[in-house]
Design brief:
Structural class: mainly alpha
Largest sheet: 2 strands, antiparallel
Radius of gyration: 29 Å
Order of helices and strands: HHEEH
Strand content: 5-15%
Helix content: 40-55%
């Protein structure tokens, strides 16, 4: 009995054969589309992801922009609205800032 190795396309492993087909570019099969029975099911899967994006990206971004229009009390007891004064001060100051560089 002689043992002959199988080519990769005839390999019993389905992953290897799919990889070989993909590498050659032939036998491309369209991806399966999932169809849900109820219309709310996709939203159940999307809501946690959307909540993470809103909580960890949009909310802090809005807070950062909002707080840039205020001057905070050094001890954190309050804040004073100054409008665009913070931006004009930074952009008109010719001295380099102590912790960064703005042209």
């Amino acid at each position: 009995m002689t043992h002959t190795p199988l080519p990769i396309t005839e390999s019993p492993l389905p992953f290897a054969s799919r990889l070989a087909r993909w590498w050659r570019g032939g036998d491309a099969q369209p991806a399966k589309r999932v169809q849900f029975d109820r219309p709310l099911t996709p939203w159940v899967f999307l809501l946690p992801q959307l909540a993470v994006v809103v909580i960890f990206f949009y909310w802090p971004s809005v807070q950062a922009v909002t707080s840039s229009f205020y001057i905070e009390d050094p001890f954190g007891f309050g804040s004073t609205f100054v409008g665009l004064e913070n931006y004009t001060e930074v952009l008109s100051n010719n001295d380099p800032p102590a912790n960064g560089y703005i042209r």
